[in-house]
Specification:
- The complex is a heterotrimer of chains A (498), B (98) and C (502).
- Chain A is of the alpha/beta class and 498 residues long.
- Chain A contains 16 helices and 11 strands.
- Chain A has one domain: Amidase signature (AS) domain (Amidase signature (AS) enzymes), CATH 3.90.1300.10.
- In chain A, helix 7 packs antiparallel against helix 8 (246-252), helix 8 (246-252) runs parallel beside helix 16 and helix 10 packs across helix 12 (354-367).
- With 98 residues, chain B is of the alpha+beta class.
- Chain B has a domain at 6-44: Histone, subunit A (Orthogonal Bundle).
- Chain B has 3 helices and 3 strands.
- Chain B is flat.
- With 502 residues, chain C is an alpha+beta fold.
- Chain C has 3 domains: 5-189 and 204-303, no CATH class; 319-432, no CATH class; 440-496, Orthogonal Bundle (Arc Repressor Mutant, subunit A), CATH 1.10.10.
- Chain C has 16 helices and 15 strands.
- Chain C has helices spanning 5-11, 62-74, 185-203, 243-262, 308-316, 322-333, 337-345, 349-357, 362-380, 391-402, 408-419, 425-432, 440-453, 455-462, 469-479, 486-496; strands at residues 12-23, 60-61, 78-79, 86-89, 99-102, 109-120, 123-138, 142-146, 158-162, 169-175, 215-225, 235-240, 270-274, 281-286, 296-297.
- Chain C starts with a helix and ends in a 6-residue tail after the last helix.
- The chains are: A alpha/beta (498), B alpha+beta (98), C alpha+beta (502).
- Chains in contact: A-B, A-C, B-C.
- Chains A and B meet through helix 10, helix 11, helix 12, helix 13 and helix 14 of A and helix 1, helix 2 and strand 3 of B.
């Protein structure tokens, strides 16, 4: 049962073939049996999940009209506030903190009766591409436990790939939904910026952060997308417009007559041969399905990584200032005679990990007087150029495509001491965040050289999210008929003990 | 080549309120030489005629009406406080001006 | 060696700069829906947003924007077609986010002025104070310092924080430098703040109570030798909490600077704190090493672009400028300058005007509000506005006196009754049985009784010694318990004693 899709689970719940309590318990059992190998969760809310499941079952028994995903379990990235449940953002500084409020994403999940299994592991404050920066230890890739599950949302992607949950929520600031999806053979979508409320999403970089749906199929992702998206008056950057019809697009999976633009700059040198091979094959399948493949050029993308690593740390240096030991969270060094300033300094030294500190210092520098124009100011201009590149490219194509990442999952520890090499992982995902458009990653197969999943990225213009679902669903269908079974069926069995 | 001295890192750490060991200051200073070179590339194309973009959306005038909504209870507000007294957050002595 | 003020202004020219922070009187906070009631129990008006809980986001209060635009218009500013919020980054426990949402290089209002008039040796003189900018920001929480001798921050063992005030909308009004005031700098500073306060009050955008901190002034002062071009180093005096203090602080700083300069020293650019008891300032933090606030556009908020129609609607709704209104009322009511000042000081101008509009004679309206009613308010130690008497009540009472239905003495009883909550004037009159005795028969009886009792005095009057009648009239009034009309009593009495009545 746990290996079926969320849509199938929902159908069985609707028909009465199973109950949410049974389904939830099955996932909790799965978590119990594989979690010591995967470590996808920071908190498993067994009691809360079963209570929620029971209440959905009761509603269904009463004949209440329920939402499409009612009763289906989900894994929530630990960066979203959930009332009275631990919310750590993978950081020591928030250990033990219980939010007195729900994020809008969580409120929407509850409104849709989606059962929250617990909170998933992540790079501290979503800074990282491997989940190694979690203060609570790394998550392991179910395809190869010695490898990273991507990051920052590695807990959510690993939970999906190990069948601990059929649905998950991620957040994507520079690729934190799409890159983990790519390296675990799952699907992840970063909606248009402003499409899903950021209220209650602990901010890393406010102008780039976006929460989004993760699942094992394009349709499941679309169903979750519609459940969490929509205008929120509590978020001043929320778009007040109807949610794009992503479920319909995912069901139709129609690409006939669509122009698909291959981004010249996001392919080639630095991309693993197996990644390129699967990407090229996917293009052929899309062409066969009736799409027209064109090439587009985005000359300023080569500056995207540099701009990102100035903008995100700058905003983060300010966003993370609130973690100061005064009102909540960790407090260190509060001994007789210590000053508030000394306590702040010590708490932030002990409470933040190395990567977080590195980025806070970098952001502090980029914003400081005398350097602002050269760094933060210049990065903002690059942002304009990248947005213009996208606007230009979207005049030639309905969607743009690229490999999601240059490589498949690397080994845990392999890049831990080389921040720049780590940052390069995000080279293809970052431009989407800078421009605020939508992006999806879905599995394109396994690389020949290492047998690990390869991600295919689809990018769509602002509030045209349905386009990436059309293309994603078409490609997924074509690949599935080629493979004969879902890609994840080829992943090693975790129970056997590896 | 951009670089950041140990003292500059120390000053930034002070601004960012992060205590740092000597070892940390020195190692960050070394790392920054590499990182700053990489990010300084933005200057290659950031000419004067390019307008900056601080935000991906072109939204304007997003307001809320001046209406009071219920606050948290003081118990909820103080629920995460490392220390409290008289329904207030208790913090160590504040150095600085009044 | 202590300098006199005259010594200072004979040698130096003061240059002023004033920054005023005004708390807006919106119902809810600047970026969240928490209430803004002054004096509420600690931490009862807080939420995830104003406590800066992880994940919370700000949303701008529309009324606060509207109030700020109104202020800008009233100060003759241009309203920026595009303005933005920015984060001002610095750590302080009273500021939950450790950054303040403020405005930096894109404020909402720029380039305004107000003219103030002060008394000089050569008579009234007008000074123009130019306003550089008006921008929006948010207030901080309040700290209570515990331990140590003074209750002050220095020597305190720890502090207790209440975030009720955190996030209340603040508007900062910054002047350009104000040169050319010469020896009148302290008066100009005071007149500017007073005029600003009156304007803000007339707009209804703030309580402008300096003692409660809803209007706070920082005074920047520097000196240069008369005739010199280059500006001297300035000091910034904070915590100036009354109009009188503004004047004292500027004067005090001018003398302090001059003493330093005369002794060959230099002024340090620093924040100073005004001390109400001594009238002197105390050194705060030196600004020689400037804070690096790392301002950048607030990414959680979108720009403000007020459209022309909105601005024009707000402009059309602006009230009459207080100083112009005062001149108009003074002329219309033919009130001497001193009386006008007394009304303004007692804050009764609005109610007097309202009373006059309801038909009362300006002199009588003024004398009721400024006299009897002010006295009662003083005794009770409450604001006149909080007494249970309205302009309508006073207008009614004045009318009853005019028609002879009440004497002045009885009218005072009615006023007192209305204030003590006995109801409208008519109800008080009915309940207390207050009535002018104008039954001639009853009056004649009293007159005859008094004349019999004081036969000697009555004889004097009968003999033509009219002033002696005063004692008899007094006795009759007493006999009728003050409910008689004294003029009628006089008329009847004189007639009774065979004297001409006019």
């Amino acid at each position: 049962m746990i290996r079926s899709t969320a849509a199938q689970m929902a159908a069985k719940l609707a028909s009465g073939e199973t109950t949410s309590v049974t389904l939830t318990q099955a996932h909790l059992d799965r978590i119990n049996s594989v979690e010591d190998k995967v470590h996808a969760f920071l908190f498993v809310d067994e009691k809360g999940a079963l209570e929620q499941a029971a209440s959905v079952d009761a509603k269904r028994a009463k004949g209440e009209k329920l939402s499409p995903l009612a009763g289906v379990p989900l894994a929530l990235k630990d960066v979203l506030a959930q009332k009275n449940k631990p919310t750590t953002c993978g950081s020591k500084i928030l250990e033990g903190w219980l939010p007195p409020y729900d994020s809008t994403v969580v409120a929407n999940l509850k409104k849709n009766d989606i059962v929250i299994l617990g909170k998933t592991n992540m790079d501290e404050f979503a800074m990282g591409s491997s989940t190694e920066n979690s203060a609570y230890g790394p998550t392991h890739n179910p395809w190869d436990l010695s490898r990273i599950p991507g990051g920052s949302g590695g807990g959510s992607s690993a939970a999906l790939a190990s069948f601990e949950a059929p649905l998950a929520i991620g957040t994507d600031t520079g690729g934190s939904i799409r890159q983990p999806a790519a390296v675990t053979g799952t699907v992840g979508v970063k909606p248009t910026y402003g499409g899903v409320s950021r209220y209650g999403l602990v901010a890393f970089s406010s102008s780039l952060d976006q929460a989004g749906p993760c699942a094992r199929t394009v349709l499941d992702t679309a169903l979750l997308h519609e459940a969490i998206a929509g205008y929120d008056p509590k978020d001043a950057t929320s778009i007040n417009a109807p949610v794009p019809q992503v479920v319909q697009a995912a069901k139709d999976g129609n690409v006939k007559g669509m122009k698909i633009g291959v981004v010249k700059e996001l392919n080639g040198d630095g991309y693993q041969p197996g990644v390129r091979a699967r990407f090229e094959e996917a293009l052929e399948l899309l062409a066969k399905a009736g799409a027209e493949i064109v090439e587009v050029s985005t000359p300023n993308f080569e500056y995207a990584l540099a701009a990102y690593y100035l903008i995100a740390p700058s905003e983060a240096s300010s966003n993370l200032a609130r973690f100061d030991a005064m009102r909540y969270g960790l407090r260190v060094g509060d001994v007789d005679g210590a000053s508030a300033e000394a306590v702040m300094n010590l708490t932030r030294e002990v409470g933040f990990g190395k990567e977080v500190k590195r980025r806070i210092i970098l952001g502090t520098y980029a914003l400081s007087s005398g350097y602002y124009d050269a760094y933060y100011g210049s990065a903002q201009k690059v942002r304009t150029l990248i947005t213009q590149d996208f606007t230009q490219a979207f005049t030639k194509a309905d969607v743009l495509v690229s490999p999601t990442c240059p490589t498949t999952a690397f080994k845990i520890g392999e890049k831990a001491n080389d921040p720049l090499a780590m940052y390069l992982n995000d080279i293809a995902t970052i431009p989407v965040n800078l421009a605020g458009i939508g992006g999806m990653s879905l599995p394109a197969g396994l690389a020949d050289e290492d047998g690990l999943p390869v991600g295919f990225q689809i990018m769509s213009p602002v509030m045209k999210d349905e386009r990436m679902y059309s293309v994603g669903a078409a490609l997924e269908a074509a690949l599935l008929s080629q493979w004969g079974a879902p890609l994840l069926d080829r992943a090693p069995a975790l129970e056997a003990g590896k | 080549m951009s670089s950041l001295s140990r003292d500059e890192v120390a000053k930034l750490a002070g601004l960012a309120r992060i205590e740092m060991s000597e070892e940390e200051l020195v190692s960050l200073s070394k790392e920054f030489t590499v990182i700053l070179d990489a990010v300084a590339r933005v200057q290659e194309v950031a000419s004067a005629d390019v307008a900056p973009t601080s935000h991906p959306l072109s939204l304007r005038n997003v307001f809320r009406p001046d209406v009071v909504v219920p606050s948290l209870s003081p118990e909820q507000a103080l629920s995460g406080a490392p220390a409290q007294e008289e329904q207030r957050f208790r913090v160590p002595q504040i150095l600085g001006e009044e | 060696m202590s300098l006199t003020y005259d010594d200072v202004v004979a040698k130096y020219e003061p240059v002023l700069g004033l920054e005023v922070h005004v708390e807006l009187n919106t119902e809810s906070k600047m970026f969240c829906g928490c209430a803004t009631v002054f004096g509420a129990e600690p931490n009862t008006q807080t939420c995830p947003v104003c406590l800066a809980l992880p994940g919370a986001l700000p949303v701008v209060n529309e009324k606060a924007i509207e109030s700020t635009i109104k202020i800008g218009l009233a100060l003759n500013c241009s309203i920026a077609p595009f303005s933005r919020f920015a984060r001002k980054n610095y750590f302080y426990p009273d500021m939950p986010k450790n950054f303040q949402i403020s405005q930096y290089d894109e404020p909402i209002c720029v380039d305004g002025y107000i003219d103030v008039e002060i008394e000089t040796d050569e008579g009234p003189k007008k000074f123009r104070v130019e306003v550089e900018r008006v921008h929006m920001e948010e207030d901080t929480g309040k700290s209570l310092h515990v331990g140590g001798a003074t209750g002050r921050i220095h020597g305190a063992e720890y502090s207790l924080l209440d975030y009720n005030r955190a996030g209340i909308p603040l508007v900062e009004i910054v002047t350009k430098i104000v040169p050319g005031t010469g020896k009148y700098a302290p008066e100009v500073a005071k007149a500017y703040v007073a005029e600003l306060r009156d304007i803000l009050r007339s707009l209804g955008v703030s309580d402008v109570k300096m003692e409660q901190g809803s209007l706070r002034c920082d005074a920047n002062v520097s000196l240069r030798l008369i005739g010199a071009e280059k500006l001297g180093t300035r000091s910034e005096t904070k915590n100036v909490n009354s109009l009188r203090s503004v004047e004292r602080a500027v004067r005090g700083e001018m003398i302090r600077h001059a003493e330093l300069l005369n002794a060959g020293g230099r002024v340090v650019q620093e924040t100073r704190h005004f001390q109400e008891d001594t009238g002197l300032t105390r050194s705060g933090r030196s600004k020689e090493q400037a804070e690096d606030y790392r301002y950048f556009p607030e990414p959680d908020l979108v720009p403000v672009e007020p459209d022309a129609a909105w601005i024009e609607t707000l402009r059309a709704g602006l009230p009459e400028r207080p100083s112009i209104r005062r001149k108009r009322l003074q002329e219309a009511w033919a009130v001497p300058e001193k009386e006008m000042a007394a009304m303004i000081n007692a804050d009764v101008l609005d109610i007097v005007e309202e009373t006059v509009l309801l038909g009362a004679d300006p002199t009588k309206a003024r004398s009721w509000w400024l006299g009897e009613i002010s006295r009662i308010a003083n005794d009770k130690d409450v604001a006149i506005a909080d007494l249970a008497i309205t302009p309508k009540d006073v207008a009614e009472i004045v009318a009853l006196v005019n028609s002879g239905d009440l004497t002045d003495k009885l009218a005072r009883q009615v006023v007192e009754g209305v204030i003590s909550g006995e109801g409208k004037p008519s109800e008080v009159i009915a309940k207390r049985g207050i009535k002018v005795v104008n039954d001639d028969g009853a009056l004649m009886a009293a007159i005859e009784k008094v004349c019999a009792e004081q036969a000697e005095t009555a004889e004097k009057v009968r003999a033509g010694h009219i002033p002696a009648a005063g004692a008899l009239i007094g006795a009759v009034m007493k006999e009728t318990k003050g409910q008689a009309d004294a003029a009628r009593v006089r008329e009847l009495l004189l007639g009774h004693l065979g004297q001409p009545t006019s």
